[in-house]
Specification:
The complex is a heterodimer of chains A (about 200) and B (about 90).
Chain A: E1 24-29, E2 33-38, H1 44-54, E3 65-68, E4 71-77, E5 80-85, H2 90-100, E6 107-110, E7 115-121, H3 125-130, E8 148-152, E9 155-162, E10 165-171, H4 175-185, E11 191-194
Parallel strand pairs in A: 1-11
Antiparallel strand pairs in A: 1-7, 2-5, 2-6, 3-4, 4-5, 7-10, 8-9, 9-10
Chain B: E1 3-6, E2 10-13, E3 18-22, H1 36-44, E4 52-58, E5 66-72, E6 78-82
Antiparallel strand pairs in B: 1-2, 3-4, 4-5, 5-6
The chains are: A alpha+beta (about 200), B mainly beta (about 90).
Bound molecules: zinc ion (ZN).
The site of zinc ion (ZN) has 7 residues of chain B, from loops.
């Protein structure tokens, strides 16, 4: 006798949670650890401290990222960066970064509760973003390794091209608006959400 | 829509920016020594330039940094973009 019970919906054949023909496929990476980092680019000790804790070079070139494993550092401004890491890492990383940056003109703030990460894939992911975002999203202008802060209609966002789509960091207070906007704008392409 | 070159992010759409009005307004060093008229001039009065105008802009939806723009108020041509504390290439601010 089987130990596990296998549940199957009568609609399983339609793959309701991942329609293969959907032009826009959304997936949320919820509860990631988000840390806002500020420091002096001109102080070599700043980048050294970050590297010591994360093993990542601080991206000093505007609108670029550095990544290793599940950690990504995004350039946000000439003295401001965002670290996104796996869930439940924020407190540990915050403490380690604060210790390494002690004595520097720098700050580390846990903003995990304030934003979430969404990935858009599918053949029309770029088209749906282009409806409301003024950036040139073509790979020749915006490719892997880059990032940009901009807006989608009235929603501020941080975008990063992935090999097969886009990653979007969106603020908590705008997430309702963001999802509703994307869902509506993606109707003509077919829209699905995967977990 | 204007295409504005952020000194950090490069060319971006006007909808990412906000305009902060006339640039290079210097706060008087000793406000107590000013007459009401002089103080009012500092607080309220701005030039209404027809032609090249130095303005402050902020990249609101982008890097959120302030910078200066020389914009022609007749043609809307942007002649220069420079960071705070800098002077525009080839001219006085
Ligand atoms: Zn910028």
């Amino acid at each position: 006798m089987s130990e596990a019970v296998r549940l199957q919906s009568p609609l399983v054949g339609f793959q309701l949670d991942a329609r293969a023909d959907a032009g826009v496929i959304l997936r949320e990476r919820a509860f990631c650890s988000h840390l806002n980092l500020r420091g002096e680019q001109s102080d070599p000790a700043f980048a050294a401290a970050i590297k010591q804790v994360l093993g990542l070079e601080v991206p000093f070139t505007p609108n670029t990222t550095t990544s290793a494993g599940d950690q990504t550092l995004y350039w946000l401004g000439p003295d401001e960066w965002l670290l996104v890491a796996a869930p439940e890492q924020a407190a540990t990383l915050e403490a380690a970064l604060r210790k390494a940056l002690a004595g520097q003109f720098a700050s580390v703030v846990d903003i995990s509760g304030g934003q979430t990460v969404v990935e858009l894939r599918g053949g029309n992911a770029r088209d749906v973003l282009a409806k409301g975002c003024p950036l040139d999203l073509h790979p020749r202008a915006f490719g892997v390794g880059q990032c940009a802060q901009s807006h989608l209609a009235k929603c501020p966002l941080l975008l990063r091209p992935l090999a097969d789509g886009f990653e979007v960091v969106v603020r908590r207070s705008f997430s309702d608006y963001f999802f509703s906007w994307i869902e509506d704008a993606a109707q003509e392409y077919g829209f699905s959400v995967v977990s | 829509m204007l295409l504005i070159t952020c000194p950090w992010c490069g060319p971006r759409a006007e909808s990412e920016f906000s305009c902060g009005g006339e640039a290079h307004i210097v706060r008087p060093k000793d406000p107590d020594a000013l007459s009401d008229a002089e103080w009012a001039d500092y607080v309220f009065y701005r030039t209404n330039t027809k032609g090249d105008h130095a303005e402050q802009w902020v990249h609101t939806y982008g890097c959120r940094r302030w910078f200066n723009v020389i914009r022609n108020t007749v043609t809307y041509e942007i002649k220069a973009v420079y960071k705070p504390g800098e002077t525009p290439a080839g001219g006085e601010a």
